[in-house]
What does this fold into?
Amino acid sequence: MSGKSVGILFDRVRWEEKELGRQLEIRGVPYDMIDAKSQVLALDKTLFTTVPGRILVRCVSFYRGLNASSVYEAHGIETINSSKILDICGNKLLTSQLLAKNGVPTPKTIVSFSPEGAMQAVEEIGFPCVMKPIIGSWGRQVVPIRDRETAEAFIEMREQLNDSMHTIFYIQEMINRPPRDIRCIAVGDEIVASVYRYAPPENWKTNVALGGHSEPCKVTSELEETILKTVSVVGAGVLGIDLMERSSSEFVVHEVNGTVEFKGAQTVTSNSIAGRIADYLISKRNREETQSVKA
It folds into this structure.
């Protein structure tokens, strides 16, 4: 293993990766920045002698981060998040299925695998509803379906893309919510940030990357309960959990992010989110060293 105790696996260096490195430096923790695009990883039992024993996965590409983490794990290197968590979070179908199975409130969701089935799912959910790709971020290709004509147009468009991924039709109810959603960032089993994300004018998507803005959100007991239950179901790590308000005290989880962006949330959060992630990595290292001494 490398002499560095932590690695940050990336394929694009954003503000978040720079801030994570800065917070590790403040804490005196040596780390490596690992460009996933330059990795050449043997699948046999060859030891990865130049790789840290713990890697924080920060790849923008879902498939790149997922598959790299699985290779590292096979060689005994811990990844945060684990490949299991990344797989669940990167696939909206798997996320919704897991949440629903374990009683975490989530929008009613129907999946189908043909244009005919997609229209049946839309009619069963009712108008308005939302059609999403099962893989993707930043709200791309997430569209509101407000009538049958719109549904038929989008189903036909996706069918003509000639991509097997787009023939998986993931349809959700549209929650009657305020013009905002909530992003909570959980590190381990602690909520380190909670913000409202408001949609920009003339848009219904709340993504900060699309022009939305953030405001502080108080963590009520009901919100905390929903977040911690989600963590217990998905697995502890570094998670961005997105929720909508069905009422003043009822929340539904509509997405869980395995490589969460937090620049927008940080602008309205007093404590350092990257610092809390760094502390989590350090605590895991310290527990490992303590267990090693006891052994």
In short: The chain has nine helices and 13 strands. The first strand starts at residue 6 and ends at 10. The CA atoms of residues 222 and 248 lie 10 Å apart.
